[in-house]
Amino acid sequence: MEKLNLVSESPSRADGLGRRSFLRYAGGVAVIGSVLASCSAPDEVVSKTPTNDLSKYAGARISNGITVNLGSGELGILNYAYALEQLEAAYYEMVLKNPYSGMTAYERQLFNDLRAHEQIHRDFFKAALGSAAIPGLTPDFSGINFNQRSVVIDVARQFEDTGVSAYNGAGKFLQTEAYLITAGKIVSVEARHASVLSELQFPNGNAFAGDTPIDGNGLERSLNPGAVLAKVAPFIQETITSGLMA
Amino acid sequence: MNLQNILNDLESVDGEITDRLAHVSRRGLFSSLTRKAVAAAAPMVMASALTSAYGQGSGLPGNVVDVLNFALLLEYAESDFYNRGAASSSLMVPMEYREMFAQIRKHENAHVRLLKSVLGSQAIAMPRFDFTAGGAFPDVFSNFQTYAAVSQAFEDTGVRAYKGQAGNLRNAPAILEAALNIHSVEARHAARIRMVRGNKGWINDNQATGLPQPIYDGENTTHQLGIEIIGLTGKSRAEVTEAFDEPLSKDQVLAIAGAFLAK
Questions:
Q1: Chain A residue whose CA is closest to B174
Q2: Are B169 and B179 within 8 A, CB to CB?
Q3: Which of A107, A204, B3, B4 is the Cys-Cys partner for B96 at CB 3.0 to 4.6 Å?
Q4: How many Å apart are CA B99 and CA B101, to the nearest integer?
Q5: CA distance B40 to B34
Q6: Which of A215, A26, A195 has its CA nearest to residue A114?
């Protein structure tokens, strides 16, 4: 089976999840409080720009003992993209298999679209890579409470932000024009996703193109493969290695 | 505003600059500057980082200068459009969209500053724009629906324009990366303004959503790298075409943007 294995819940996981999640949220509230308290200058506006911290959704760090090497060079970059698309597709599949209560018709349609786009990206990379493709990866979403709307949207938005920064940082490693253009065709769709999810999370502000992902020159921050792989490692049971730039 | 606040502002405004210039000490470079001065200096610092591999200005490869001036033309159009919109007393932007347009305007002005700094003396001057497009959009700065429509036209075209030029920047990796960093910002803008107009954030087939068709020509392709995606995935035409944004050539973009140049 090269498909992602989504039926990987261990019986003990549900018990541990509640308490871990509670502690995480309690910690999160404390951090938010201290940030607000530190914003004392009267002329400062507290930004509604979302923050990026995927690590708080890391689960029990389940490892299945398998190591997957993305390779290096252009094929390594394409496998890197394939790995990220696998993760995103698996995430939205999970969201729609376990819809949080109160999911609106708009939100359901949105997640349907996102799932379709990421599945298409995943299947496209697999086909394009052919025999050079890495195997299907096994997600670990054990630290994510899919019953909680705010969590589901926050993780989705962060995965999309991460995807955009990954593609933006990978373009310079693609010398074959067709690969570069194809990556460009995908990254702008990921950026559209990030925009729509950011707006859903923080409506009517500037979060859709916020000051966290975008710098003072109006440039969206890039990440190199090593930094991206470190961010997503908690959500993949395989250990990912590569000859790509850290 | 005390010193700590200024330093905090620098972190948020310019932290990325010094991140990219690891050899420059943040405090050594910025500690004596006010926030406003730093905001003005930011594109020059970034520009020097981008041009350092080529020497200043005139050292840029000719193909790169061409692409950057093409990008500058589009950014001039966008920034002038949003600046005029913000200045128009007869344009009623609904309250819930004001911060959004302010953010887009901020980015387009920053893109102009950055591109001008990178190009130096080789930068083209801003032409005169006619955002009514010769009378096609007579109420562009007094009717919000028209304003939003032209905004979507610029943003979706901008995404396609940058995408179409990426291949021409492969010999300048730092500038390619900066162009990609602009490209995704334009895509974020495009998705947001599309939703304001009642559209999905992504482009379904080559549907023009009431805008001139050339802006969306070619968005209906279902082949990628020679692979027929509908057959591969079993997904609908809408989903497949939404999942990939298509580039436009320079000539296609100039045909679209040319309508907004003052005659």
A1: A172
A2: yes
A3: A204
A4: 6
A5: 10
A6: A195
Domain extent, residue A122, equals 13-241
Q: Closest partner residue to A220 among B1, B181, B225, by Cβ?
A: B181
Chain A nearest-CA residue for B226: A128
- Could you say which architecture CATH assigns to the domain B50-200+255-260? Up-down Bundle (1.20)
Backbone angles phi, psi at A2, to 5 degrees: -100, 0
ipTM for the predicted complex comes to 0.84
pTM: 0.83
The tokens for A124 are 């496209």
Tens of pLDDT, residue by residue over A184-198, are 999 999 999 999 999
Domain ranges for chain B: 50-200+255-260, 203-244
Do the Cβ atoms of B229 and A124 come within 8 Å? Answer: yes
Question: What total of structural domains would you count in chain A?
Answer: 1
Identify any residues that bridge with A220 across adjacent strands, giving them in sequence order: A214
Using a CB-CB distance cutoff of 8 angstroms, which residues of chain B are in contact with residue A124? 224-225, 227, 229, 232-233
What integer pLDDT is reported at residue B42 of this predicted model? 64
* Residue A156 maps to a domain: yes
In angstroms, the separation between the Cα of residue A146 and the nearest Cα of chain B is 24
Strand A239-241 and strand A67-69: the pairing is parallel
Buried residues in A18-32 as b, exposed as e (16+ CB within 10 A): eebbeebeeeeeeee
Closest CA to A119 of A156, A97, A86, A94: A86
